[in-house]
Give the backbone structure.
Amino acid sequence: QVQLVESGGGLVQPGESLRLSCAASGIIFRAYVMGWYRQAPGKQREWVATITSGGVTDYSDSVKGRFTISRDNAKNTVYLRMDSLKPEDTAVYYCRPLTILSWGQGTQVTVSS
C-alpha cells in the first residue's frame, strides 16, 4: 500500500518561494510517473505538474515558468519548487503516483501579504 507524506508548506508573501517535498513508500518509486496536485478552498482538486521516471516534466499553464518539479529516485522523493508565488496559488498541495489513486494528507500553502 502506497504511503505519501507531503511537507514544506507554509505562509509566504506574494513573490516569495517555497519547496515542497513528498516522500513515497510502499511502491517501486522509480517505476512511476509522479504528480503534484492542489486543491484551493471551495474548488476541485487540480493537476499541477508531473515528472516521469526519466525526468521528463509537464506543467499546467497556471504554473508553467514558475514551478519546477523534480525527483530523487534514491530517496523515493518528489519535489516541487515554487517561485514567484501568487495569492491564487493558495491551496493544499498533494502528490501521488499518476496511476495510483491514493492521497496523503497534503501540505498547506498560503500566499498572502
